[in-house]
Specification:
The chain has 457 residues and is α+β, with helices and mostly antiparallel strands. The chain folds into 3 domains: 9-108 and 186-246, DnaJ domain (Helix Hairpins), CATH 1.10.287.110; 116-180 and 266-302, no CATH class; 327-455, Carboxypeptidase-like, regulatory domain (Immunoglobulin-like). Helices cover 41% and strands 23% of the residues. A 6-stranded antiparallel sheet has the order 5-4-7-8-13-12, with no helix packed on it. A 3-stranded mixed sheet has the order 6-3-11, with no helix packed on it.
């Protein structure tokens, strides 16, 4: 243990560095009576302030241990201040003073009149692995803004990749950084009061008086009492202290904390908005598809034409293929119109299947013999007396590409009939129609047959 007593705190109480806690308490009571203006008859309370400051350090076992080990960082900042202490150190009972060095920021090294002891945290994550880091120490306002906001931004960007609670943990860490800025603890008051002693020992009574005015409202009774005594001492010395012009460095700590809250909410709000927009888009698409279906059904019901029993979706119209076993064809109408779809044999020209497919609906045609077929479809409204043709035809299309259905013989003599799905789109006036699917571009050729050709059985 180092008993160098660099600040003369033991000498201020009149004890040796090896004194016990009971001896320190007894020495403080004795020296307080000797130096207090009310009991000693002295006009100045400077010596009593020095005794109180010495007891604040030596009366706390943790702070005393740091002092004895010469690890009281604010007192050991640079060689120049060390030389000043060695030159000006003296016994408090005389007219000399204990000169203290103002506290410096642990990160930029500059003197800060209103320091704060803060702990900022960030963490980075990737799936199941994460790494956390914290910056702990005495901050000035500028370093607190930079470190805190940078750590919160890093956490927002890199900490949300932890599965499955990354976004929640990121928000908690950032909100903790915000709370760290908002709260003012006893240690912050103690640092500010110590700076008040330091500036007063260097002759800056205005700044010392202003700082003591801040700490006199501390929740710690000893800090509040020492602050009031320091203010009384400065007032009694005759120094000019009333127009210090001190600006509270942390007056906007609420705004700084609010900035952390905004950062914490950016990712959850963005994810929420994306999910909400996707949900609304799906809802709109569903409502639109339902509306199209209702309009098509209403149109078919509202204008049955001359047909007493208009066909339902998927109902066969006219003569069909005579085979019992064949291929099954799925036909989906993705157009805005009701359709009559026909599969016409290329060789014979006869219709193998004809059925009514409502707008937005799917129907099945079967059985279809093997062979090549033209796909013809007409859009219209109202049915004639035979219920097999539209009264009003909007248009007719035929896919120039033939659909081929082939039968495969399997190993044990079984016959396999393949299936096919066709999509019927809106009518096209041009002879070519291009569309994209999975990164590829397809060109579909259309022709427009006559009404007589389409109506032929």
């Amino acid at each position: 243990m180092n008993h160098s007593d660099p600040l003369g705190l033991y000498r201020a109480l009149g004890i040796s560095p090896t004194a016990t806690e009971e001896e320190i308490a007894a020495a403080f009571r004795r020296r307080a009576k000797e130096t207090h203006p009310d009991t000693s008859g002295r006009e100045s309370a400077q010596e009593f302030v020095q005794v109180s400051a010495a007891y604040d350090v030596l009366g706390d076992p943790v702070r005393r241990e740091k002092y004895d080990k010469s690890s009281w960082e604010p007192f050991r900042r640079d060689e120049e201040a060390k030389k000043d202490r060695e030159q000006d150190r003296g016994y408090p009972g005389t007219s000399s003073k204990i000169r203290l060095d103002p506290t410096r920021c642990d990160f930029c090294g500059k003197v800060t009149a209103q320091p704060r002891y803060l702990v900022f945290t960030y963490f980075m994550a990737l799936l199941f692995f994460s790494h956390g880091y914290s910056a702990t120490g005495i901050f000035c306002k500028r370093c607190a803004c930079q470190k805190g906001l940078v750590y919160s931004i890093i956490t927002m960007i890199l900490g949300s990749w932890l599965f499955p609670l990354g976004p929640l943990l990121s928000a908690v860490v950032i909100l903790r950084n915000a709370y760290e800025v908002w709260k003012v603890n006893i240690e912050d008051d103690r640092l500010t009061l110590r700076n008040a002693y330091a500036f007063e020992s260097h002759g800056n009574s205005k700044l010392a008086y202003a700082l003591a005015g801040i700490t006199k409202k501390s929740r710690d009774v000893s800090i509040s009492r020492a602050s009031k005594l320091l203010m009384e001492t400065i007032e009694g010395s005759g120094a000019d202290y009333r127009s210090s012009g001190l600006v509270k460095a942390w007056w906007d700590s609420l705004l700084l904390g609010f900035a952390h809250v905004v950062i914490a909410l950016i990712l959850p709000v963005a994810l929420g908005m994306y999910a909400y927009n996707d949900y609304k888009a799906q809802e709109v698409r569903s409502e639109y598809a339902h509306l199209r279906l209702m309009m098509a059904q209403a149109e078919a019901r509202a204008d049955p034409g001359l047909c007493k029993n208009p066909p339902r979706n998927g109902q066969a119209i006219g003569p069909q293929s005579p085979v019992l076993h064949g291929h099954v064809v799925s036909i989906k109408n993705v157009s805005d119109y009701n359709m009559i779809v026909k599969l016409r044999d290329v060789q014979s020209g006869h219709v193998a299947a004809a059925l009514f497919v409502a707008s937005g609906q799917k129907a099945w045609a079967h059985p279809i013999p093997s062979g090549e077929y033209k796909v013809q479809y007409a859009a219209g409204r109202g049915f004639d007396e035979t219920c097999s043709s539209f009264l009003e035809i909007y248009g007719i299309n035929e896919d120039k590409h033939y659909e081929e259905f082939r039968t495969f013989k399997l190993k044990y003599g079984d016959i396999f009939m393949g299936g096919r799905q066709l999509h019927v789109t809106n009518l096209h006036e041009s002879v070519e129609y291009s569309h994209g699917y999975r990164g590829h571009t397809y060109v579909v050729h259309y022709i427009t047959p006559s009404v007589e050709e389409f109506s032929r059985p």
